[in-house]
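Narrative of activities, Objective 1.

The group set out to show that a structural description can be obtained from nothing but a protein's sequence at a throughput compatible with the screening campaign. Below is one input-output pair from the validation batch, recorded exactly as produced.
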Amino acid sequence: MLIDISVPLGVHTPAWPGDTPFSCGWIGRRENGDSVNLSAITASPHVGTHADAPLHIESDWAASESLPLSAFVGEAMVLALPADHPVQDDVQVEVLIALIAAASDAAPAPGRSLEFPTRLLLRTGCAVSPGRFPEDWPTLSLAAAEWLVGRGLLLWGSDAPSVDRRTSKTLPVHHALFAGGAFILEILALDAVAPGPYELLAQPLAIHGADAAPVRALLRR
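Output recorded for this entry:
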């Protein structure tokens, strides 16, 4: 069974405040005598579920056409922050270890390390999917982001609008993930997804020269 974890591009999908919202207009309509209905859309690539490109944070880094499909397809693990995790608190390494152990449905045996997933998707409970833009959301601490890429992370995803804080201007988590060779999915719909292992199918659209690309993200047990 496929589980759609995409927040769609639509007129009711909130854009980041000040960003370009989604709109759909019409160039041709059958009822006006045109041979076909022909639409034209306008939107920031950051509306709805999307993959950030490194270009988003550094002008000389790679654009959207460089996003590797291999990072967005394969085994993944969904993690869920507990409901009482304070929104203002960063997600620290020890919290990640506990969440991975819980999602794995087993703690490591004495003397053995926890098997580390290379694609992680975090349910923060501060999602765009209900049709509103959240005021704040938990993000990785810089130490946790560096810890993840140091263990071979390929992809970090979140239901939140950004992997950094809403008010951040320096975007340290973006920088740490991209610099460490990991990629980023934002604005996932994970509300109804149980923690655990899945197969992720989340290919970015083949858009050239942009700082992000829309994604239709699916999970399969």
